[in-house]
Amino acid sequence: MHIGRQTWLFKNKPVIISTGTVVGPDEGEGPLASTFDFVHDDLDMQEKSWEKAERKLLEQATELAVLNAKLKDEDINYFVGGDLLNQIISSSFAARKLGIPYLGVFGACSTAMESLAVASLLVDTGNAKYAMAGTCSHNCTAEKQFRYPTEYGSQKPPTAQYTVTGAGAAVVAQQGDGPRVIAATIGKVIDFGITDPFNMGAAMAPAAVDTIQTHIEDLKRKASDYDLIVTGDLAKVGHAIAKDLFAQNNFSLEGTVFNDCGLMVYDTDKQKVQAGGSGCGCTAVVTYGHILQRMKKGELKRVLIAATGALLSPLSYQQGETIPSVSHAVTLEMEDAP
Amino acid sequence: MATSTKSKSPLWKDGQWNMSDQQYQQIAKKREPARSVFANCVRAFLVGGTICVIGQAISQALVKWADMTKEEASGPTICILIFISVVLTSFGVYDKLAQWAGAGSAVPVTGFANSMSSAAMEHRSEGLVLGVGANMFKLAGSVIVFGTVAAFFVALVYLIFGLKH
């Protein structure tokens, strides 16, 4: 049901019955390592190209999600997926292996929650019994496509972010045990003229603030109704800017914890990741691994996840275009949350 | 632009932003970590200097032990430096050095070798012709283009003013 300005309220409260998370070596050295289903020791994952390695991550994550749900591929009605590569090849090629009817979506790194929102909508409206959302990213494919060859010696500024190598998938069902998807807000594309592709946190921060405030207004809630509000991959710079914007908007974050998946996935003091993590996989593995685990333990009852995406292409920034950004937010609740 | 972040008027109301691009960029600028140009220059000097010292040592060694003149030694010296750079690139070391050294590892010939070998490695998966061949000069190409253009203008100056070596 559409409520407020931009929000879907899911009346039947679809359930995330299972997840699968697979990450690379750097994430395996991060503070959330124990919350992931599988950690690869190397970046190439015994594949011949970075692109194949990224695809493998998603194939494994989706396989695990289906397996953990005690279902078979053919039980899943739809697979909603996307990634950062041109023509979203990782998701489409993974879908080829899955053989599940497939909807490809793209919202750069916000795809993590965009796909979950669409999958939940399908289930909530009765158009699917089971729908799977999945997304992935790989540090080296992102470097190759958006920046320089991975072994090229260029100095990255402290505002730069480190693309997460990882994939996360979730099976959404009409019934079952697990965190429920309560509502989703579809973000507007926002651009305040940031042009530096090494400062995507700054480009995305207003989009995150816009979507979070809209989501909470549409649901007629306060920030303090949430145990945790996380953004996708604003990292150090964007996170600080988002807090400044909330303060300026008189939007109080008191009574909640405001964090960012890009800051949670790495130990930003010890690991050389500049401002923090980014990528579709960033929000996906932190949400489907760490956050859902905490919800199931009863540590968190209501969580708002606002995945953020910078909608640039290598061509657009070389032509001097600014970086448009979008953020999609989803509220998750454990049963009997107040 | 006059609005400071401390002012009480909200920048966002009912789904609409009341903020100009310049105003936002000022807010964003405040959170951008400062970069020490001085520290970067010192690092670049140290690493760049060290690479040149190594080059000089190789050249001296060739003169002393390989029975070459100073001029004859310059070619093999560059080849050895390029070889070292390519090996370090292949082992995934050069990019880590560069993050610390900045221009220090980019400016010497080793940086040029790194730009070519890293591109060649990266695009090997697309085949030898369309991958390695077509992408090797992806980064190095502009160095060659602008190097040639600069050389042309310098040559023009020599020609016009009749300068000689």
From TrEMBL, chain A:
Signal peptide: none annotated. It comes from the Bacteria. InterPro entries: SpoVAD, SpoVAD_sf, Thiolase-like. This is Stage V sporulation protein AD. The gene is spoVAD.
